[in-house]
Amino acid sequence: ASRMINSTTHAPINVVGLTQKLVQAPGGSGDEKAAADTALAAMEVLGFDEVTRDSHGSVIGRVGPADAQVALLFDGHLDVVPAIGDWSVDPYGGTIKDGRLFGRGSTDMKGAVAAAICGVAAAAKERSLTKQVIVSASVMEEILEGVALGHILDTYAPEAVVICEPSNLELRIGQRGRLEIVLTFHGKPAHASSPQLGENPIEFAARALRHLDDIVYLDDPMLGKGVLVPVSIVSDPLPSPSMIPILTTINFDRRTVPGETRETVFEQINTQLTKNNIANFSLECYAEPATTYTGLALSPDRDFPSWVLPIAHPAAQAGLRAIAASGLPKNYGAWACCTNGSESAGRRGIPTIGIGPGDLQDAHIIDESIEVSQLTKAVEVYKNLVLDLAG
Q1: Which residues contact 231 (CB under 8 A, 6 or more apart)?
Q2: What is the dihedral of CA 286, 292, 297, 298, to 10 degrees?
Q3: Peptide bond into 109 cis (omega under 30)
Q4: What are phi and psi of 290, to 5 degrees?
Q5: Pairing mode of beta strands 227-236, 247-256
Q6: Are 162 and 386 a contacting pair, CB within 8 Å?
Q7: Between the N and C ends of the chain, which has fewer C-beta atoms within 10 Å?
Q8: Are strands 369-371 and 100-102 parallel, antiparallel or unpaired?
Q9: pLDDT tens-digit series, residues 186-206
Q10: Can the peptide bond before residue 239 be classed as cis, meaning omega within 30 degrees of 0?
Q11: In sequence order, what are the beta bridge partners of 161?
Q12: Could you tell me where the DSSP H helices lie in 133-258?
């Protein structure tokens, strides 16, 4: 069994104070160093058996005997979206008022990272563990779901993964996937006063959008239907005064459900366009490079699979037990958004569940905040889950 954690010689760390410190360490994708430093220091103070930082910049804390199986890996990301708009509080202040902690990342998802760190430490302090438990404070999730977690999973092989994204402390057993699609129409330049001499790719794009609305999507009983949403349209050159452009590109966000892959999605779009006599287009998956704060260059295709775990699976049942033991209702469902579970469950088939404090509707908004009571309750839920599966 692992050594029991004893942090009595250190300044006390609690989930609310740690969440505040993480919020006060702002950083978007590729700029998480301050938050990573904060998470690493907290794990060390709380007495994790091993704390490391990997090449991507993620912080990994381990408790439990080093030669034992990894029972659980709790994952939460440190990067946040920009704090745009007019806030009523300092978006990086961690202000507490009316029972809520305010700040960018409080809900999505620095509060959950703090709760996982504190909950796992509390479990190891209460009882010597017979299996290992990992907490990964990962990076880059807001733009590259699962890529940093995948690097961690190359080292550790957990029996189950817990994604700590906001779920109001209800169980999540699935999520829709996400594809970033680039659809480019190729035209023939001509003077704008003589459009009949050219081929306008903007007109191709407009026709395509009308016909793509007619696609019939798979309807999954847990995740609902797939979705195709245009998020930008750009012509080249831009601006194009007095000239028909040569290219028009539409970027799409495509939410997928089980049974849909990149290949089936591309075939669906190809079929819909060609049968409506739309040609001169190319289709690809977005793969613009990104760089971690450690300087590592990444350029994966933006293809993040969906997943569903049966509610009868032992990991899902353990999640319900941990929730119930904390005095909460055993509600469950699925996320409409995409998470790092795309890597653990969607790509690798590792049993994955989701439990996290906060409401997803509070993510990415002006005056983002989280209930303080949910933070403290999340620590209890995570502690119960560790003791159930690793204690």
Answers
A1: 251, 252, 253
A2: -30
A3: yes
A4: -140, 155
A5: antiparallel
A6: no
A7: N
A8: antiparallel
A9: 999 999 999 999 999 999 999
A10: yes
A11: 73, 352
A12: 147-153, 201-212
Read off the tokens for 108.
């999505």
> What integer pLDDT is reported at residue 8 of this predicted model?
41
Give the integer Cα–Cα distance in Å for 131 and 386: 9
Q: How far is CA 227 from CA 177, 233, 347, in A?
A: 10, 18, 20
What are 76's strand-pairing partners? 137
Q: What is the dihedral of CA 291, 295, 297, 300, to 10 degrees?
A: -50
**Structure pTM?**
0.92
Determine the Cα–Cα distance for residues 146 and 382; give it in Å rounded to an integer: 21
CB 140 within 8 A of CB 288: no
Tokens of 317: 């049942």
Closest among 172, 170, 116, 125 to 382, alpha carbons compared = 116
- List, for residues 42-77, the tens digit of each pLDDT value: 999 999 999 999 999 999 999 999 999 999 999 999
Provide the 10 A C-beta neighbour count for residue 290. 16
Are the beta carbons of 260 and 177 closer than 8 angstroms?
Answer: yes
